[in-house]
Amino acid sequence: MKIGVFGTGMVGATIGTKLVALGHEVKMGSRTANNEKAVAWAKKAGAKASQGTFADAAGFGELIFNCTSGAGALDALNAAGAGSLKGKILIDISNPLDFSKGMPPTLFAGNTDSLGERLQAAFPETHVIKTLNTVTAEIMVNPGRIGGGDHVMFISGNDTAAKAKVGEFLKTQFGWKELVDLGDITTARGTESYLPLWLRLWGALKTPYFNVKIVKE
Amino acid sequence: MKIGVFGTGMVGATIGTKLVALGHEVKMGSRTANNEKAVAWAKKAGAKASQGTFADAAGFGELIFNCTSGAGALDALNAAGAGSLKGKILIDISNPLDFSKGMPPTLFAGNTDSLGERLQAAFPETHVIKTLNTVTAEIMVNPGRIGGGDHVMFISGNDTAAKAKVGEFLKTQFGWKELVDLGDITTARGTESYLPLWLRLWGALKTPYFNVKIVKE
């Protein structure tokens, strides 16, 4: 499958590398066609990896992963352009973290609005699916690393068919065992608002390699 | 032990009833000395249950549970008075829920501030410990109801000794098996910010009887 990955940070590189390892063709997009980190990533990841602008990656991919920072997400999608994103599924992993007030970061959305909703509102002809944003990058693509994979991933989005496709992708490609469909894209407020707890747990547990499992009656 | 419980809602009644069943003497506090719901609760809960004003409950209790609504928490503590709360542990279960913008509720604190911090700042000589606010009332006092009690409770507070006492109380009295000490009272931002996800999970799971378990490396 041809996949576009927006973002050259740890999340983009981890997702991109895993997708190439799974046999997919991956184009990493950034603001410039030959971003240094993207070029280095593509060289390391192998023949099925390439890089380009956000528009190049969007045009290339049948499926798009948004792995930019939260603050850079809307700009990345705008640079890609509504035309090349039209009708496609965009898996939004970004979190609305605001580092301007010191550490730990606060949120610039998540209470009465969410970043997922902002992206969906700005690109109504794209299927924005919010998921994977509640774990560290390595757990996203390798949930089996902790607890034998016995923990949960949340998923939010308006389009039921697109959400089902992403759920299937997460299960078959990354190995997720349990998904909870929270509902439409407004439920991204829930998972984005979870970040402050996630950050405090990272501090308390002294490792980012953790996740939650749902225990219910 | 003599315990004061602020609030006559479902949380206050559930906590109060459990404490009486455990053999404690409990005074339920509200704005008026003979609040109808508090009188009815005390009559039903038995000889060790009584009711009074917030100040009465604060004066009575060696330990205080704040089970008011988030919006009413500061008023309740103000009505109790700093004198009667001085040197005591106040277990703050309230959440900063704002119902004014429709359902599900949004938060009036939790991002750059938390309700737990506001209470601690207003009553610096009281040990405010934030905990129990991440599960429904029945699970607070009976964690064994789901998953054999194999799930987690978070705890936040500035005073290490007070936090240890509350942790011991939760374990020995309510049956909690696993506590995660998130740190000082600023970490209440984490658990308060989790509420939007909790509310969405309630919708998705179709039951409030659930909690999370930490899975880590």
UniProtKB/TrEMBL annotation, chains A, B:
Keywords: Oxidoreductase. GO terms for molecular function: oxidoreductase activity. Coiled coil: none annotated. The keyword Oxidoreductase applies. Residues 2-96 form the Pyrroline-5-carboxylate reductase catalytic N-terminal domain. This is Pyrroline-5-carboxylate reductase catalytic N-terminal domain-containing protein. It comes from Hyalangium minutum.
